[in-house]
Amino acid sequence: MMKAPFHVYSVLLLALAVSLTSCSQQNATTVLEGNAAELTYVAPGEYDEFYAFMSGGYSGQITAYGLPSGRLLKEIPVFSVYPENGYGFSEESKPMFNTSYGFVPWDDSHHIELSQTDGEFDGRWLFVNGNNTPRIARVDLTTFETVEILEIPDVAGLHCAPFITENSEYLVSGTRFSVPIPQADVPITSFKENFKGLINYVAVDQESGEMSLAFQIEMPGFNYDLARNGKGKSHGWSFLTTYNSEQAHTLLEVNASQKDKDLLAIIDWKKAEEYFKAGRGTERTTSYYHNQLDESSGIAASTEMTTTTILDPAELPDMVYFIPVPKSPHGCDIDPTGEYIVGNGKLSADMSIYSFDKLMATIEAKDFDGDINGIPILNYESGLHGILKKPGLGPLHTEFDGKGNAYTTFFISSEVVKWDVEKLEILDRQSTFYSPGHLTIPGGETKKPFGKYLVAMNKITKDRYLPTGPELAHSAQLFDITGDKMKLILDFPTKGEPHYAQAIPASMIQPNSKKFYAIEENTHPYASLGEGQAKVTREGNQVHVYMTAIRSHLAPDNIEGIQMGDEVYFHLTNLEQDWDVPHGFAVQGANNAELLVMPGQTKTLKWEPFRPGVFAFYCTDFCSALHQEMSGYVRVSPK
Ligand code: CUK
Ligand code: CUA
């Protein structure tokens, strides 16, 4: 099984696994500039200049931070239930978690993508992937709420997602793990015959933001890792790094690191779209869920989808290409001009930078070195802009400042390196504490980066903060990149494991931020639009409590006539019409969670009485001086 010269790889692999955490705190202090406090200080009552949206990794959520202060503004629940506000517990939100695998209340969120118009952020929506149970979610940036979750069928591990095109036409994603497609009970040793990859194109409605699966491209059974879409001159093309072109299915750390080069997939998505629209795809039966929140009722609904269209590159020419990329690549990043594509290998000493013009010329000249399943492999040298020599160890991700500079994180050597994209010259390097994964620069993946700051999201925290036992918060580090040299100016702990983040000027979001929901627009079927509508109704063993909340009482506040065996639905409408006056609701022995209801909204908690007696309920949000009085009783009688 271990045909590879194990000793050779083991050194590199050990280095990758262990990483260098030798930079001491001493160094941190020496690289700190004297005016760091001034550069990051946001006075009480003042606002941050940027919102930074970070994925939560194994928390499954998104967090919004202010930059440069590093203050946590909000955790936005996406793929995981969130008892803090009842997301995933309220009847309205439960359908958001429906998948073809059942109710899945957790995921692993990796990559944030802000919506774009003409290659620049437009501040409308935020997309993020669920890596484990393949899904893509959309957050509405007027409410900071998850409004849509779309499952991606037949893939396994949606790490490579959801990368957006220049006008938010599509979100491209690729399967992390190849699997039998369609799923089948086959021996794992039949990997090479039976396991396949899929690259997925989800269309985004330009007006509503609504996602729909357009088509899937069937690919060889590699691992599809990360992608970016072209911009400007390269608009219409997608680039995806792949690893495990060895097609190993066991001990990947050795067996998927045998070849000196893996492959970068290059896709002409305009061509794919043409084929799709001309009906050249094959329809396949499948199952996946599309969950959407109706914003006027606040109720989510699921639709099961049953077919998908597959495009086969073996039958549809001039659509997919490969080009070799150095050993075990991770990030795939494109500079603001759309000309340079960085596809670096984690186990390679140098970084390969491709030129879009040269790639196109290579395709034009059919300068191919064979093919895989009918997909041409472009000549490596022909597509290359050049090599960045010995930039550091373990290059992962690159972003840009819009001034011709790239910034790359190096996991093994624990640093960020600034280099000139055109000249391929290293300009600066600064230590991070410790091994960085992604980095983000405001607008750093767009046509017009805002520059100014760089945030490194570090995988290892160690001694950066007061210890909290074995489990530590992950850490982010803020650098000022306005000068020739990067300056470390702030450390801040983060939630979950932020893999990627994007930052956007606050001015693009703040004016549109919704303050409350208009009660007259509430279309929830169980809403009480005034206290006069508060009531209790019964349909068989289902009891519906139409309840209202306004400072400082709940109505009705004495509920009798409930029997053991009943299902009680508390439909709480918050009648307030002012900013920042939520009311909460919890009932004793609640076997789920609470509700936190925003002004003008209705939310529902299902409660099944557990024994006869009189039980208290109360508002959970300190909403007024008489908040403690905001309570009531429910009486439960034997059947
Ligand atoms: S990431 Cu998902 S393993 Cu480098 Cu984009 Cu962290
Ligand atoms: Cu309403 Cu406390």
TrEMBL record:
PROSITE patterns: COX2, PROKAR_LIPOPROTEIN
Pfam families hit by this protein: nos_propeller
Signal sequence range: 1-24
EC number(s) given by UniProt: 1.7.2.4
Biological source species: Neolewinella antarctica
Compartment(s): Cell envelope
Location, primary (coarse class): other
GO molecular function ontology, one term from the record: nitrous-oxide reductase activity
InterPro entries from the UniProt entry: Copper_CuA (IPR001505), Cupredoxin (IPR008972), N2O_reductase_N (IPR011045), Nitrous_oxide_Rdtase_Sec-dep (IPR026468), Nos_propeller (IPR041114), NosZ/Cyto_c_oxidase_sub2 (IPR051403), WD40/YVTN_repeat-like_dom_sf (IPR015943)
Lineage: superkingdom: Bacteria
Identification of the protein by name: Nitrous-oxide reductase
Keyword terms, alphabetized: Copper, Metal-binding, Oxidoreductase, Signal
Keyword Amino-acid biosynthesis: no
